[in-house]
Design brief:
The protein is built from ten helices and 15 strands. It has 317 residues and is α/β, with parallel strands linked by helices. β14, α10 and β15 form a beta-alpha-beta unit. Bound molecules: 8-OXO-2'-deoxyguanosine-5'-triphosphate (8DG). One of its GO terms (molecular function) is 8-oxo-7,8-dihydroguanosine triphosphate pyrophosphatase activity.
Length: 317
Amino acid sequence: MSEKRKLVDVAVAVIVYEDGKFLLAQRPEGKPYAGYWEFPGGKVELGESVYEALVREIQEELGIQVTHAYPWITQIFSYPHALVKLHFYRVTQWQGEPYPHENQAFSWLYSDAVNVAPLLPANGPVLQALSLPVVYGISNAAELGKEGFLVRLESALKSGLKIVQVREKQMTADELASFAADVVSLGKTYGAKVVVNSDVALAAKVGADGVHLTSQQLMQVEVRPDVGLIGASCHNQEELERAAALNLDYVLFGPVLPTLSHPDNPVLGWATFGEVIKDLPMPVYALGGLEPADLVTAWHYGAHGIAMLRSVWKDSD
Ligand SMILES: Nc1nc2c([nH]c(=O)n2[C@H]2C[C@H](O)[C@@H](COP(=O)(O)OP(=O)(O)OP(=O)(O)O)O2)c(=O)[nH]1
């Protein structure tokens, strides 16, 4: 039934300041779901690219000129009135002051304090995706030593790092439990999320925010584990599709560039990275040989952000 309907492409703008504050608007009278809150945007017209539609809709609805917008996530949603393919872009820079040209109510919000309702039904997972930081750190006590790593971690947290994965394959179970507890405690102090690689029981035991599945686990689990935030490592399209089918919160996808530890391994390169991840419903972090300065390039190719195992722990000054 619904699957036979024509897919309607919709360009959707998440207009977001650097501190994470974003804009929701209330759908005007006369449209389906009038009064519901949504991100500004609208249907792609015949002959238009999604990007062109985004720029046009935002000019029409808010009177601002989009100058920097990055493809982000794509979701297909079946409404009684239409089957829509929502192309979400993060709009990070614009000219002019947003003004409600269609008399819509506006609200600037942070993802952890959304106090307007109801939202369009498709938008719940989008708020969850928006709450994920754009820089993702992976622990590296293997190279820095446990104490050395914790010092670097605290300095990175002080500088604004907001998510870290505990991944130390060389540690014994006891060492890992104590290390993970230290990372969780530091994370809590600085308001950062902590996920634990592969071990659901350990994540629960140390009070982590969630679990990061290995690509092997990803292909084996039948259902999404119920322990908060769930991510996974992916290296190919099949794994990415599996992560999408399991409704995971995010994935790491790479290697994008050669890495120090595996300089001769095949890499995706940015163009292939962008091609493979386009149309995915969940945020994708680029991984492999990246530095903080690569963030905007990653956005350009559709990534949510970048994940780093080494450069994120270097002192910036
Ligand atoms: N703009 C927008 N549309 C969304 C969001 N989430 C969501 O499910 N949609 C759906 C609702 C609609 O079915 C479709 C957008 O269609 P629309 O009616 O707003 O498009 P439009 O501005 O081009 O309006 P019109 O041509 O019908 O006047 O996408 C969102 O966050 N923003």
